[in-house]
Amino acid sequence: MRSMLAAALFAMCCAFTAQAQNGAPGEYLVRAGGCVTCHTADPARPFAGGRAIATPFGDVFAPNITSDRETGIGAWTDAQFIRAMREGIGRHGERLYPAFPYAAYTLLSDADVLAMRAYLATLPPVRAATPRNTLSFPFDQRWLMVLWNLFNFTPGRFVHDASKSAEWNRGAYLVEGLGHCGECHTPRNRLGGLKNGERLSGATVAGWQAGNLTPERVSGIGAWRDDELLRFLSTGAAPGRAHAIGPMAEVVSASTQYLSPADSRAMIAYLRAVPPVAIKDARVRTSFGQAARVDLTSADTDGARLYAAACASCHGMTGEGGGPFPSLVHDGVTGALGMSTASNLVLVILHGVNRRTRDAHALMPAFGAQFTDEQIADLAGYVTRQFGDARATIDAKAVARLRAIAQ
């Protein structure tokens, strides 16, 4: 399903590009806002909702935002749409959960919100009722969102900072508002609110570890060159730095690769200026690991044997890759290695990678159906010891927990 969804998102976004060039600004904004990734569960029915958004309190299902009048937003007024986007209040006055990033969209201008609304109104109607959320008590009580908002939500439009450049202001609008980068890259408190004192310093999303976007040089993007950041946003691959996986691969495939060069540069300029946040005990990811020099065909550990059977055909017996296949050694590959947790690596093994851009198609098969939790723990253990941060350990129980998270 993940590979089918990635292919469908790529095809849709190619269509978006052609149409947006013909003068439909709402399409560009919807794409930049990442709407299609969350609101598509079935690739045959884009924007029809139904995708589970995993939270620590249970799963929230993204609604249908096609023009269907009964199960979508076809019967919504502009005022109702604006209120949902900027205040987190649904058509019938119900409180929306912050899995929908209204806390970021509140910054959007009237013109941009209405342009997005106008584009969504052109989507073919798809009759698809949204599944019931599976939140645990008391988080399933929507009225409690009044209290959540009191402590975690500040409504209001983006205010231009006259002391900053136009590029910085555009980047701030995109990062903090439309692109809502902080929703995934900022740690959250026990109630799911953003820890603004650690803004953009990385967080856990559906089991994945989202990276530190601040200009800190060890764990963040401070040592990245602008051209590396531009390449990552447009292709998802910055060799020697990182490769996009999981949710970020979807963001690149469906959103950031289609940003204008000016908007991409603006985001980078803004991120360069945010306060750097250091991560305790962090070390440079690409400084870990070494090429394997043992004969894996006669390996004497389960992890090494699994690597030889499942990974070596692409990444090489030594892990140094070749051709389109990235090296696992000193490459920060996929953000899975060189971290103090093995969760990203395990999730990549479970679900694979399918990142489509205009320039390339990065594909790694999923092994979740082939390997047991014990086997994946063994394989991840070998890979992290050999090529990554040896501090990153994991056992079968932890693999099982990651396997159970909705993706």
TrEMBL record:
Cellular component aspect of the GO annotation: plasma membrane
Gene3D superfamilies: Cytochrome c-like domain (1.10.760.10)
Cofactor: heme c
Keywords: Cell membrane, Electron transport, Heme, Iron, Membrane, Metal-binding, Repeat, Signal, Transport
Signal sequence residues: 1-20
Residues annotated for heme c 2 binding in this entry: 181, 184-185
Pfam families membership: Cytochrom_C, Cytochrome_CBB3
Residues that, per the record, bind heme c 3: 311, 314-315
Record's subcellular location: Cell membrane
Domain Cytochrome c: residue ranges: 21-124, 166-275, 298-387
Name by which UniProt lists this protein: Cytochrome c, class I
Organism this protein belongs to: Caballeronia catudaia
Organism taxonomic ancestry: Bacteria, Pseudomonadati, Pseudomonadota, Betaproteobacteria, Burkholderiales
